[in-house]
Amino acid sequence: MKKTLFSLTFVLLSVSLFGQQQKISFEASEGYNLGSVIGQKEWTVKTDNVPNSSFQVVTGKSTDGNNSVEVTSTNAYTENMTYLFKKIPEYNRLSVSADVKLEKLNSSEYYMLSLYYNNNGNYSWAGGFNFLISGNFYADNDLNFQALGTWIPGKWYNLKIEIDHVTEKNIKYYLDNQLVHTSPLSSKVVRANDLNFEFDNDGSGFIVDNIIVKDMDYLEVSDVVKTEVNVFPNPASDFINIKSNETIKSVKLYNASGTLVKTENNNSSKIDISSLPKGNYLISIETDSGVETKKLIKD
C-alpha cells in the first residue's frame, strides 16, 4: 500500500538525550522558534512544490506545552508524497510516539509516524499509520496491514510504534495507548533511523506534537524504581487527587471521543473536574519516567 519514497538528503541529528529519551514538543525551552520548522533542529522537507512556509511552529494548538507544528496544504495535489522528517537515533529496540490531528476527510492522504531505515540514501520502510481520504485507516507496512476503523477529522490521536530489531524482530502499533497490531519486521530494515510525517497536499493538512523517542533497552535496565501513580476518588464528581512517587509534570484529560478537554501543569495533585460533563475519561499523567494513563468516571 506504500507509495514510493524518493531519494532524500539528511543531516545528522545532534541532540543530547537524557535517560535515552528524546522529547520534541516544539517549545521555546527546547530551542524552537515560531515560524517555519524547516531548518530548526534538523527538521527537513522533501516535496514537489509545497513551500517551507507550509510547515509552521505555531502556538495554541498543542497537546503538550504551548507549541506544535501545523502543516497546511496549498491545495495543489502532489503526485509524490511530501515528507516532513528528521533523523532519529538507531536503537536495538525503539519506541516512537506522537500526537497527530488531521484536518478533514475526502482530501489529503496521510502516512503518520512513518519510520524508515536510511542506508546511505537507500530507503527501506519499517511501517506507519496510513490515513486514507475515505476515512479508513491502517497500521501498515510492506509485509502486511491491519484495518483500524474510520478516523475522525479534528481529533487528536496518540500514535506509537515499537520496533524490536534483535529478539522478536517485529513492529508493534499502538493507537491511543492500546496495542492494535503486531507485524513481522522486514529484513531490509536493519535499524529504523528516520522519522517521517507524510501527506499528498490534496487540500488538507495536519498538526503534530509531543514526539517521544525512546531506547527501550536502556529504559528497561535503568528504570529500577517504577513510577506509582494513583487517582482518587474514582468515580468522582468535583475533584480528583493524583498521588505519585515522582514529580508530576503535566496532567491531560481526554473525553470518550479522544478530545483533549483539560490540561494542568506544574506538579498538579488536585484537579477540578466539576465543569466536565458526566461520562468516561482518560487521564494522561506525565512524570520524569514517562506517561501513565488512567481511566476516570465522572459522575
From TrEMBL:
GO biological process: carbohydrate metabolic process
Organism: Epilithonimonas arachidiradicis
Annotated signal sequence range: 1-19
Domain Secretion system C-terminal sorting: 231-297
GO terms for MF: hydrolase activity, hydrolyzing O-glycosyl compounds
Keywords: Signal
Pfam families named among the record's database cross-references: Por_Secre_tail
Name this polypeptide is given: Putative secreted protein (Por secretion system target)
